[in-house]
Amino acid sequence: MAEKVKKVWVVGHKNPDTDSICAAIAYANLKNAKASAQVVYEAKRAGEINEETKYVLNYFNQKRPHRITDAGAQIKDIEIRKTVGVSGKISMKKAWEMMKQLNVATLPITDANNKLEGIITTGDIATSYMDIYDNHVVSRAKTPYRNIIETIEGTLLVGNEHAYFQDGKVLVAAANPDMMEEYIEDNDLVIIGNRYESQLCALEMNASCMIVCSGAKVTKTIQKMAQDRDCVLISTNYDSYTVARLINQSIPIKFFMVEEDVVSFKSEDYVEDVREIMLKEKYRDFPVLDNEGKYAGMISRRNLLNTKKKQLILVDHNERSQAIDNVDAAEIIEIIDHHRIGSLETMSPVFFRNQPLGCTATIVYQMYREQGVEITKDIAGLLCAAILSDTLMYRSPTCTEIDKIVAEELAIIAGIDTETFAKEMFQAGSDFSAKSAEEIFYQDFKAFVSNGIEFGVGQISAMSRQELGMVREKLLPYMEQVMFERKIPMVFIMLTNILEENTYMICAGEGASKLIEDAYHVQEKDGYYLLKGVVSRKKQLIPKFMAALQEQ
User: What is the pTM of this model?
Assistant: First the structure.
């Protein structure tokens, strides 16, 4: 059997910027170039893509990475039991034999399109034997004659095995013919011996089926009469007692299956949610459905013990507050970043590359060169765009000489002029007219914690004061809503003018204004706090805020 391919997600932070997306795509490409056939690295995103990044991806012919919201293990990460779905027409006996052979307590019942119809359990089968005293149950279940023949290992002498026994009761003709006339009714199924008179009586009383036991020979006269009266005639080597005991086992499982309120799970469901539901249910096994709602397999509590964690490579962040939800439930195997060391913890040592550079893409470029992997034109374009974005076209104090050298080398490979491309890219990202306040706010927002105090900082970059003024009017009313929804006491937005290389700060929350004033010794004017020369959240803002909070 072919070995299952392992998937590793390469993902940036929530509210991803251009560096976060482009670094994930480029690094996944690098890892796949060096990986074995059993491992596939997939670039993912943890949030919506902003207009600037959309422009970059379209320019360099790249698809948007699939969005993920939670790193928790899902049912699809577990080796589920591939018990094949069975038809609801099979007999209880056959179902029981399959359960013993497969060593399972539950069988899924599916239709011709593999849609789940219900389940049958060993308990349901036991109930059918122990609690059913109705001698009409075989007909009420519309039992196919082929089920009866199969169950009692019989031979069809007369009739159509594909027809159904659907009227009358089941009885054993143990009395003499005179008494039989009193209790045999139209359409009954009669279990009978080798007595010619009894067989004749059953046919004369309009039995719809007659089972002749103990391998007794059936005369041609009886067979002809059965044919004329449209009576199904079956012969079996079993004795009357055994046939009477087995007859209920021929009933189709559909009659006893559980079809209402069947607890099933989808392959996308998260293991933690599934575990909680399982603990409340009496069943041991549960069906799993795929994305199309079709039956995919069975899962039990035991399967959850072998849950495999998702494997992640984090790029452009290393703080829990910025990571995908439930990141602690995943296995982090690598971190590639250029920010301060944050709050993420791992269960075992990981490959962690953190360099004081202006962009994660610069680090990724270095790794391509170190590993001797060719950088294609489109990948070079992504990496160059990420550096230009993160360094604000080399204007940010986070920008190093290495970043600039790398960006220019990548620009040559990508066939672009850095200044021209950067202006077009920033212009695309500055078109806020059609965006909602929520879309603008979360296009580059990060949460931080210092001295037990949590605060959020968003950054919006534009080419003019006019564009930033429009953004301010949209965001001011929305900031209060963000604090309420996210339970953050302070929110700040950096409105950064790329050409001026200044930031116009707005804020909300108790203590927010004081924090700005303590950190920068500035006063509010015309609704802004002007932070001259401040363009970097990472290097110029967060360290000042952290220091001010410590002093407070």
Answer: 0.69
